[in-house]
Amino acid sequence: MKQVVIDDSFWELFPDAQVNILYVNGINNHTSDANLAERRQLLADATKAAGQFLNNDTFRLNPVVDQWRKAFQQFKKKKGARSSIEALLKRVNQGREFAPIDPLVDVYNSVSLTYGVPVGIEDRNKIQGDMHLGQVEAGLSFQPVGADKDEPTLDGEVAYYDDQGAVCRCLNWRDAQRTMLTEDSTNIVAVMEAIDPEQIDRANQAMDQLSQLINHYFNVQPSQVFHLTKDQPAAVVPTNMQ
């Protein structure tokens, strides 16, 4: 993988959007009891912080949920597809706790909850060619995490994709088994979408926090944060990370 490219078809739907990109090399994502208690507290604090995005008793009317539902109405999607941040906030709204999974998942879930933004991370070593985000044609190969069969993309759906098929369907809804993050992942790309100025401000803070937490938990230095817009739609992997 050499770069992330946001296609023109994405900007046609969301001309004022911004997509933040972060590259990281050399992580050790195997879980450890050494920081388990710290990660558990990280998730607890993030769950509490997420309460700021749940001020309306009617869940769907909370601004973060409403904004992303309206965004998902702009393209063809699989029935029931929702933004990843809505799924996390729904768990908070139901009073459910977040147990540690592995260090990187715990870190990006905590950032997503704290700032009310969708966060995705893919294993860069599994991406074939460049990774794109845009409206796709019907039939791109996609096997969801945990599924045992292919569920191809729809015509006009917004998805991340590479030379082999879809990487994440319906914007940030569901990852492919092929490129998913595992304990053995070492080189990654983090993505974060925002579609209006208020979301962009939170996403910028969130990506900076993600970079700091990755440095803290994995003792590696992430790349700079790339802020992709319609005028700057690509982020090349830094030479020292290729």
Automatic annotation (TrEMBL):
SMART domains: B3_4. SUPFAM superfamilies: PheT/TilS domain. GO terms for molecular function: phenylalanine-tRNA ligase activity; RNA binding. Residues 66-219 form the B3/B4 tRNA-binding domain. This is B3/B4 tRNA-binding domain-containing protein.
